[in-house]
Amino acid sequence: MSNSILTNRHDFLLLFEVTNGNPNGDPDAGNLPRIDPNTNRGIVSDVCLKRKVRNFVELFPPERSSDSDNGFSILIKQGAVIEREQKKGEIHAAGKLPKGSADQQAEAAKDWLCREFFDLRTFGGVVSTGDGVLKGSAFGQVRGPAQFTFGQSIHPITPMEITITRCAVTKEEDAKKERTMGNKHIVPYALYAAKGYISPAFAEKTGFTDADLGLLFQALLNMFEHDRSAARGEMIVRGLFDFEHVGTQHPNNADQNKREARLGCHHAHKLFEGVKVDLTPAANAAGKTFPESFADYEVKCEWTDANLPKGIKLHLRHEEGKTIGPKQG
């Protein structure tokens, strides 16, 4: 993908599963898997999903060809000090605009930070700490173009508490003990759905490019492959449906198409409704109310070249670039 600023709106649906693991523990509940008390459906926070994206990009950053191109450092990570990085941006701005106003320097500092840090120009963040030009500035609050909803399981879940033992001890005074005991919490199986929205209007403000979009989708598809642990040994992305808005006009009407692609050509929730997730006929016939594996589910994409709304292109990112649509003109 190109390094040009993103111009088209995208709405996407992400399906992922967990087997015998804890996709997102709640520290206020003894690290139990998060759950909606009204429906007993499992929850994975948007912050958790963004963490996986950040981790992937930090492990596998693309090569940066020049200092003027976007960088792929991660601002929000273990051990990071935001104010330290913020000051680097302010120093850069001061050197670039020695006689500029405070607002000009604040904007230049924000632009430098967005260029250097992938997660800031993608998800946004607050960089208005300290005593520099960004403190109290409107440019210190960056609104990113990519936003996620919470993931929610398709069916209710029943978390399990598993007791574990350890033959070694931690403290010297416990040396005579034969073993120590602990516990872990797991979800036997669940399929989750999360939604995401990418706005070209905010992409223009942070410098988010088509290449950044490609990296974001690559990270979403592979975010669990290098995040294995005892709690997340079996997490798999099962679907990534990317609805791109391209405009409804004839290709010759480029200006109007560009405006429609930026604004959007169809409501996101109606696009998502065209992807149906339900139990298979065999699972229903067996009377299953708690699916045991992905084999118990049937994912149907009802969108085709014939019925996909005008001005929409559907990328099936999980099917190696398969695309449906668009209809224009």
Protein model, in words:
There is one protein chain. It is built from nine helices and 15 strands. It is of the alpha+beta class. The protein has one domain. Strands 1, 4, 7, 8, 9, 10, 11, 14 and 15 form a nine-stranded antiparallel sheet that branches. Strands 2-3 form a two-stranded antiparallel sheet. The protein has a two-stranded antiparallel ribbon with strand order 5-6. Helix 1 packs across helix 6 and helix 2 packs across helix 3. The radius of gyration is 23 Å and the shape is flat.
Q: Low-confidence spans: pLDDT under 50, at least 5 residues?
A: none
Query: By helix and strand content, what is the structural category?
Result: alpha+beta
Report the helical percentage. 25-40%
- Main pleated sheet: 9 strands, antiparallel
The number of strands is 15
Average of per-residue pLDDT values: 92
**Gyration radius over CA:** 23 Å
Give the CA-based shape: flat
Number of domains: 1
The sequence of SSEs as H and E is: EEEEHHHHEEEEEEHHEHHEHEEE
**Oligomerization state of this entry?**
single chain
Strand content: 25-35%
Note the gap between the termini.
25 Å
- Tally of DSSP helical segments: 9
SSE blueprint:
Elements: E1 10-21, E2 25-26, E3 32-33, E4 41-44, H1 46-59, H2 82-96, H3 102-116, H4 118-123, E5 124-126, E6 141-143, E7 146-148, E8 151-156, E9 160-166, E10 180-198, H5 200-206, H6 210-222, E11 235-245, H7 254-263, H8 268-272, E12 275-279, H9 281-285, E13 297-301, E14 312-316, E15 322-324
Antiparallel strand pairs: 1-10, 1-11, 2-3, 4-8, 5-6, 7-10, 8-10, 9-10, 11-14, 12-13, 14-15
